[in-house]
Design a protein that fits this description.
The complex is a heterodimer. Chain A contains 23 helices and 29 strands. By secondary structure, chain A is an alpha+beta fold. Chain A has three domains: 165 residues, Aldehyde oxidase/xanthine dehydrogenase, molybdopterin binding domain (Aldehyde Oxidoreductase, domain 4, 2-Layer Sandwich), CATH 3.30.365.10; 187 residues, Aldehyde oxidase/xanthine dehydrogenase, a/b hammerhead (Aldehyde Oxidoreductase, domain 3); 385 residues, Aldehyde Oxidoreductase, domain 4 (2-Layer Sandwich). In chain A, α11 runs parallel beside α21. Chain A starts with 21 loop residues before the first helix and ends with a strand. By secondary structure, chain B is an alpha+beta fold. Chain B is globular. Classes of the chains: A alpha+beta, B alpha+beta. At the A-B interface, loops of A face β6, β7 and α3 of B.
């Protein structure tokens, strides 16, 4: 019998296996895009607009082009003459706008590229870019989304409006619920602020437009390349098959590297102009902060909440205005993606949300971690929290009264989404236990007597994973996207090595490790015997139109594809093994023997190792009988999610496959003298169903928690009245660091998903739980001071203005309660 | 980002003399802080080059100036636009003159809009620096007109 591989069969999934990637990455042996040096490489630098909104009167690149070592320069006018505008996802009238990667007629945000200079060195390109003269005529900028909807100053004249999209999402009987309500709470305005992500590695593009075969080769760190190439092919007017995109190690993306295709286009056109020499662009940190992509900013207006006499929410109405910056690009998908979590973790059935999105003279948004859903989940958590405080119900009790109950799963939301599994009360119980709820309540009571401002806040949230792209048809019925899929290839190569290729582009999520765990379980071998080739490559890896790494989906879509491919390979190996071992397939077992992984006939004890098996197919095929000619030991599998196209009129349907959940509790003190909010204690509970690799999950929870704490207390994209971004360096943007992180008391529960083969749910975005949690804790601390936490960003300055200046966030003005 | 400053001072010279001084680019421009050179195009248009140094941002700024309002001896108003360190600055500077005690009261208003990298990176420093430079300019004017 085969010797054991050290574990029982089918149990590598769930093991705390060290990440296979660490050996490479922690030794500095990773291969990132900026590590790539090519012969005759040129370097590109963008010339960017200082204005948020201005007409371009003229661009003069002649002085720059005369500088020794400058290969060429590109202007917007040149690009307009050679290309088509980028395709627009939204419907008319916004489909009419002309979005080019370099501005030609006018600029629409500070930092928008207006020209590019290509030179022999990066330093030379920097110097040459300074010599480009651009003459502008300033226009009135529009910085606020509500103001933008007044259309006083239009960003895109072709559209004739600043309104990108509007739709009403209405379910249940809202009027009846309000008529029967025991309490109605009205909230005038809330605001979810604009922030971004700060990956260690900024955007990098290397492009080569080969004049010999008219093909474009990209090496870059775009995190959704199959999306990018669709935009690039149409824009550059080349067949999509003539674009090769290859990604290697990526130093973080958090979604915002999805929209780097405009820069990719410019690099390709620059290479073409430079005679096919490769052109590299490495984004600076300030460029990244001002001009790559930000998260969506959102205003919530005229919110009304109906509650019964027990504080159970029965209906919500509200008007939401989303700010997508100067160009929609990935938008208006965010106008529907929030509805994946329409009721959050709560049971209310009646709701009406009037959702609009506007362009403003700010950096375009991108699908930043927790994209579009975190804004909505924060909105719901603020509602639940302020209703609890106003009605005198303890915030934990308020949540228990409103949560979807464990016995209700799978739970269908008012808009047709199916929450696969969950147990929010158990998470709350565990979080309270981790943080020491009762002790903190006592300490809080004592501290309050001393005049200290201590608050305890709960944030419950969802991380919806694996999108149904059919939801895009809700924003534009003409779009040709629906469902979701992922491809993987699993093969036994000529010397018997198990090699897996998958079309994801991991940025720290441990795909090499988790994919190896899945395949190891299928073949009953050690994960170290599985080589996983990650990184997107249109020529090498299997991919579909949805391939990439985004939207908390790899554990479901990626690993389902890997599992499917491994199962196909196993079936072929078994069939071949039965022939070689002269037995029936049912008699063949998989294991590891003295000569490595092998197949063994239980009845006879005869075995053949993987090399022997692969050799028959690949190098010794004359011994193969004709009926086995179809075996390749090279198996491709495309996993498809069982989605249907949603009802576009009713905006109804299942939009996501899995719903991981997070419940965080924070204890915060606002210092009386400095108004600095300090986290005193923090607990984070996660439920992502079956855990593939516990340390990887825990690491992602810590990452998402850091991201959320940074967003809540430190990171804010601030613009002045004329559209200057005032937080364009780390000195001003102040991204969170390890020094700012509290000790996180981590815990998890597991409610396996019935929707995925393994019970795993996608995770990693974290649902922005800390943003909701910190707002709730600050609310608890400041409720008695008459402060309403109406903004997702709070720092010493804003808290001073609320507490002392009484200028902002006044409960009395913003929140009304009608008791019937 | 907008910076608005205003103030007034008195000098012993007549309004006509003060006006003539203020509207003569060759006399007025050298009083600008960190002035390097001037190039006069016509009676109402000239360009000045000044040194700029704000923390680590150092360089020169070429500023196009226009005498936009000339109402001798009551008012002179300049409009200017320049570019520096990846940013643009546009401004107006207005001088209202009135006769007082045998001399002239000069009421001045300055408003600058700053766009781009300068405002983004050094926004917090610009207002105090602007005040300092305007004080230098006004001090220079007072000294020159004394």
């Amino acid at each position: 019998m085969s010797s054991s591989n050290g574990k029982d069969a089918k149990n590598w999934v769930g093991q705390a296996l060290p990440r296979k990637e660490e050996n490479r990455l922690l030794r500095g042996r990773g291969r990132f895009s900026d590590d790539i040096k090519l012969r005759e490489m040129l370097y590109l630098r963008f010339v960017r607009s200082p204005y948020a909104h201005a007409k371009i009167v003229g661009v003069d690149t002649s002085t720059a082009e005369k500088l020794s070592g400058v290969a060429c320069a590109l202007t917007g006018a040149e690009i307009v003459s050679q290309t088509q505008p980028f395709i627009e996802i939204g419907p008319d009238p916004f489909a009419r706008i002309k979005d080019y990667p370099l501005a030609a007629a006018k600029v629409r945000y500070q930092g928008e590229p207006v020209a590019a200079v290509v030179a022999e060195s990066a330093a030379l390109a920097d110097d040459a870019a300074e010599l480009v003269q651009v003459e502008y005529e300033a226009l009135d900028p529009v910085i606020d989304a509500e103001e933008a909807l007044e259309n006083q100053s239009l960003l895109h004249d072709e559209a004739g409006t600043n309104l990108v999209w509007n739709g009403v999402f209405e379910y249940g009987d809202v009027a009846k619920a309000f008529k029967e309500a025991a309490h109605v709470v009205t909230i005038d305005r809330m605001h979810f602020h604009r922030f971004s992500s700060t990956p260690l590695e900024n955007n990098v593009v290397i492009a080569r437009w080969d004049p010999k075969d008219e093909r474009i080769y990209y090496q870059c760190n775009n995190s959704f390349p199959s999306f990018a190439i669709q935009f690039l092919a149409a824009h550059l007017q080349v067949h999509i098959d003539r674009i090769r995109v290859e990604t290697s190690d990526i130093g973080g993306s958090f979604g915002i590297k999805i929209t780097s295709y405009p820069q990719m286009a410019v690099c390709a056109l620059a290479s073409k102009k430079a005679g096919g020499r490769p052109v590299k662009w490495v984004e600076t940190r300030s460029e990244h902060l001002t001009s790559s992509a930000h998260g969506n900013e959102r205003i919530f207006r005229e919110t009304r909440v109906a509650l019964d006499k027990n504080g159970v929410i029965t209906a919500i109405t509200s008007r939401h205005i989303d700010d997508c910056g100067a160009y929609p690009r990935y938008e208006p998908l965010g106008c529907v993606i929030w509805s994946q979590v329409f009721p959050g973790v709560y049971r209310f059935k009646n709701a009406r949300i009037d959702f609009s999105q506007a362009v403003t003279n700010k950096c375009p948004v991108g699908p930043n971690r927790g994209y579009s859903r975190m804004q909505h989940l924060w909105f719901l958590e603020r509602i639940v929290d302020v209703c609890a405080h106003k009605l005198g119900i303890a915030p934990d009790e308020m949540r228990l009264r409103n949560y979807v109950r464990p016995e209700e799963f799978p739970y269908t939301t008012p808009n047709g989404c199916i929450y696969d599994s969950g147990n929010y009360p158990r998470m709350l119980q565990l979080a309270k236990q981790k943080i020491g709820w009762d002790d903190w309540k006592k300490k809080q009571a004592t501290a309050r007597k001393e005049g200290r401002l201590i608050g305890i806040g709960i944030g419950t949230t969802l991380d919806s994973g694996t999108n149904n792209f059919g939801q895009s048809q809700i924003v534009n019925p003409g779009l040709p996207y629906s469902g979701n899929s992922q491809g993987a290839n699993c093969k036994l190569d000529i010397y018997g090595e198990v090699v897996v290729a998958v079309g994801s582009c991991p940025q720290g999520q441990g795909h090499e490790t988790t994919a190896a765990q899945v395949v190891a379980d299928v073949l009953n071998i050690h994960p170290d015997m599985v080589t996983v080739r990650t990184g997107f490559d249109t020529e090498r890896n299997v991919h579909t139109g949805f391939s990439g790494t985004y939207a908390s989906q790899f554990a479901v879509s990626g690993l389902s594809a890997v599992h499917g491919a491994a199962q196909k390979l196993k079936a072929e190996m078994k069939r071949l093994g039965a022939f070689v071992l002269e037995t029936k397939e049912a008699d063949v077992e998989f294991g590891t023997g003295a000569q490595g992984p092998e197949l063994i006939a239980k009845s006879s004890g005869k075995s053949i190792n993987y090399w022997g098996l692969a050799n028959i197919v690949n190098a010794n095929s004359a011994s193969l009988p004709e009926e086995l000619y179809e075996l390749t030991l090279n198996c491709r599998y495309i996993w498809r999610a069982p989605f249907k196209v949603p009802d576009k009129q009713k905006k109804y349907g299942n939009l996501t496959m899995t719903y991981a959940s997070q419940l965080h509790i924070a204890v915060i003190e606002v210092e009386r003298d400095t108004f600095i909010p300090r986290i005193l204690d923090y607990a984070a509970i996660d439920d992502c169903g079956t855990v593939i690799n516990p340390p990887i999950v825990e690491g992602q929870v810590y990452g998402a928690t850091a991201h959320g704490i940074g967003a809540a207390l430190m990171e804010n994209c601030v613009y002045d009245a004329v559209g200057n971004m005032l937080t364009s360096t780390f000195s001003d943007y102040t991204p969170i660091t390890a020094m700012n992180m509290p000790h996180v008391k981590y815990g998890h529960i597991s409610t396996p998903s019935p929707h995925s083969y393994s019970g795993a749910k996608g995770m990693g975005e974290g649902g922005a739980a800390p943003v909701h949690t910190i707002s709730a804790a600050l609310q608890d601390a400041l409720f008695d001071e008459g402060v309403f936490i109406d903004d997702s960003f709070n720092n010493a300055d804003s808290l001073f203005r609320a507490l002392v200046g009484k200028e902002i966030s006044q409960m009395e003005k913003l929140v009304k309660v009608e008791k019937r | 980002m907008a910076i608005k400053l205003d103030g007034e001072f008195e000098v012993k010279r007549k309004p006509e003399d003060v006006y003539d001084f203020l509207t003569d680019p060759n006399k007025f421009a050298p009083l600008l802080p960190d002035f390097q050179s001037i190039s006069v195009q016509d009676a109402t248009h000239f360009a000045v080059r000044v040194n700029v140094g704000i923390s680590y941002i150092k360089g020169t700024a070429d500023v196009k100036m226009e005498l936009a309002q000339a109402d001798r001896p009551r008012r002179a108003q300049y409009k200017g636009q320049g570019s520096v360190a990846g940013g643009n600055v546009s401004f107006t500077a207005r001088f209202d003159l009135s006769a007082v005690n045998g001399g002239t009261k000069v009421a001045w208003q300055g408003e600058a809009q700053i766009f781009g990298r300068l405002a983004s990176v050094a926004g917090g420093l610009l207002e105090p620096l602007g005040k300092k430079n305007v004080q230098k300019l006004i001090g220079g004017l007072q000294a020159a007109l004394s």
